[in-house]
# Entry
Amino acid sequence: MEFDFAAEQPKFLMLMYGLIAFVAVVGGLLLLLDVVPSFFARRREAQLVAASASGAPLPRRRKQREGVFAFFFLLPTLLLLAVGLVVPAVRTTLLSFMDSGSSGWVGLDNYRWMFAEDSIVRVLINTLIWVLLVPLVATAFGLIYAVLVDKARLEAVAKSLIFLPMAISFVGAAIIWRFVYAYRGVGDQIGLLNQIVVSLGGEPKQWLLNPPLNTFLLIVIMVWIQAGFAMVVLSAAIKAIPADIVEAARLDGTTAWQMFWRITVPSIRPALIVVVVTISIATLKVFDIVRTATNGNYDTNVIATEMYNQAFRYQENGQGSALAVFLFVLVIPIVIYQIRNLRKQREG
# Structure
């Protein structure tokens, strides 16, 4: 097939415009972050050298000028936040008070629907189960891993293997675990879980089709991914515990169990909070695992998947936006708690 350059010319023009825009943006950022500060730094250095040579008093920094200079550097970030976060958040909130076509106001009807519809209540319950189990279980496994692997002979290799699931996308992890839960009638199974059941004399099951068990099996995927993250953070926190505290506890005859609960856990409490908060936020937004593994069927839907279904599959913009706002409201208390916790740590 002969290539028709004339027919493809618009695409080449779009590609060229994209490259030009990319070069312009990158060049502009380099100018802002490198050339401009270097210019003012050299100017300041020249002023200091001239004042030192002439014996004149050193020029003072002008706070007003520094404020303008700081705002100049913050302006691109503020614009990006406004365009990418603030404007969409305001627009989504407004859409949540409108009908499916975003043409008329319906007040709080979309929020009433959220708590009156049985299927959506099931979605909220599923999300609550995810948020309660995943952070606690993943953090617990991460802490166990961190304690067991700490100062082991092959510590680096063990940590790499435990952390490896974090390098896999949620979609990839869901596909892997779908094979683990796979079902094939009677006989040899391709799914690991069913093969184990058959080997023990049991009957294979369609695990992902049976609620509420399927929700817990999907939670296992998220825990498998996040436990590696928890292990890395908590292992670093354990290694940061002062050696003199550990030695003093050992001299006092503290057992391993007492060492764990009275020394290790209190010492790494800030890291534990960070891990739990981070995993909680990630769990509230979980979408890929449910979408890939079950497509939200068989009572496995969570808020993020139902939000997508309402807004893009069913064209119910108002209801989808209401779910999005509700999800945002759920995240806010966790973020506020983390901010206050960080502030207390700085003050302490």
About this structure: The mean pLDDT is 84. Residues 50 and 56 are 8 Å apart (CA to CA). The longest helix spans residues 5-54. The chain has 14 helices and no strands.
